[in-house]
Amino acid sequence: MNLSNLTTEKRNKNTFGLDEMSVSQALQLMNEEDKKVALAVERELASIEPVIEAVIASFNKGGRLIYMGAGTSGRLGVLDAAECVPTFGVEPHMVVGLIAGGEVAMTTAVEGAEDDLKLGAKDLENLKLTPSDTVVGIAASGRTPYVIGGLDYAKQIGAKTATISCNKNAEISKHADFPIEIDADAEFLTGSTRLKSGTAQKMVLNMISTISMIGIGKVYNNLMVDVKPTNEKLVERSKRIIMEATGADYEVAQSYFHQADEDVKLAIVMILTNSTKEVAKEKLIKAKGFIKKTL
Asked: Which position among 9, 49, 53, 83 bears the catalytic label?
């Protein structure tokens, strides 16, 4: 294994003497390095776009978005998948995060898991991968065997494949339909890819999941209208979303929120179209979940 040519493994000339800096100096320098991440992601927007289009197509066919990775990359995928459930009201099986070594690897390193070429394929096989799914392999180094094995299996099945790496000419890019390569320069702390690489990956994952959900009607204007009100804060946020979307006052929003069985989108359509709950449901089904198409 030769890591010498990987950007993510190179020493950052700007942070030499890091152990001699004051806290203030280290903070300022780390902030300067982090500023490079958004610009690096910006340079790859054209590569990210077809991934999102593939995910939207998968969702419209009843397929899934499946992230897979090891270590920090795997954890970020699991995190993004988990957050889609309360934010967009989707079932947990619609966006899935796989990490080499399984759930225990979320908090504890599982020795050798990321180097197992067959494990990625096995994990996807256990998910009963279909051609309607899209698999996104995440690896800062761009060479993780677990991810490569999974991508190759996905291609055999006929699923769409994408990758997110933080090195140019990454090995995993050769195994994907839609490779994304984010080069944010050497890490602040040499080889610590949970830093700039992790930030870059999280930004791209945010784009993929959020804009894909917009593409299937989970957003009205810039409001997350399929939010699940699973706690007191989200209940109040739900009422505020209804108010923002319809211009209704708090009492009206609260009334429709309860009439709609705490379904924010349904309450909005009931108000905007002056419909009963049953009629509003029919309108949403006909409009495939897009509020603006019901109006």
From this structure: 83
Please name which of 198, 137, 208 lies closest in space to residue 173, comparing C-alpha atoms.
137
Q: What is the pLDDT of residues 115-169, one digit of tens each?
A: 888 999 999 999 999 999 999 999 999 999 999 999 999 999 999 999 999 999 9
Q: Which two tokens stand for residue 188?
A: 């602040």
Gap between the Cα atoms of 260 and 106, Å rounded: 37
Output the six-digit token pair for 249. Answer: 């006052």
CA atoms within 13 A on the CB side of 281: 7
**Range with the poorest average pLDDT among 5-14, 21-30, 80-89, 139-148:** 5-14
pLDDT digits (tens, 9 = 90+) for 243-266: 999 999 999 999 999 999 999 999
83 catalytic? Reply is: yes
Same domain, 180 and 79: yes
Which residue stretches of the chain are H helix?
23-42, 45-60, 71-88, 117-126, 145-157, 196-214, 232-246, 250-259, 264-272, 277-286, 291-294
Q: Which amino acid is at 158?
A: G
Query: Taking a C-beta distance cutoff of 8 angstroms, is the pair 151, 175 a contact?
Result: yes
- Decide if 187 is catalytic: no
Mean per-residue pLDDT of the chain: 95
Output helix, strand, coil percentages for the chain, rounded to the nearest 5.
55, 10, 35
Tell me which residue has tokens 């799914």: 133
Instruction: Spot the catalytic one: 33, 114, 181, 187.
Output: 114
With respect to residue 151, please indicate whether it lies within any of the assigned structural domains: yes
Which of 181, 214, 247 marks a domain boundary?
A: 214
Question: Domain for residue 2, yes or no?
Answer: no
Give the span between the Cα atoms of 48 and 168, in whole angstroms.
15
Q: Are residues 123 and 251 in the same domain?
A: no
Query: Which residue range forms the structural domain that includes residue 79?
Result: 13-214
53: which residues sit within 8 A by CB, 6+ positions away?
A: none
pLDDT at 4 over 70: no
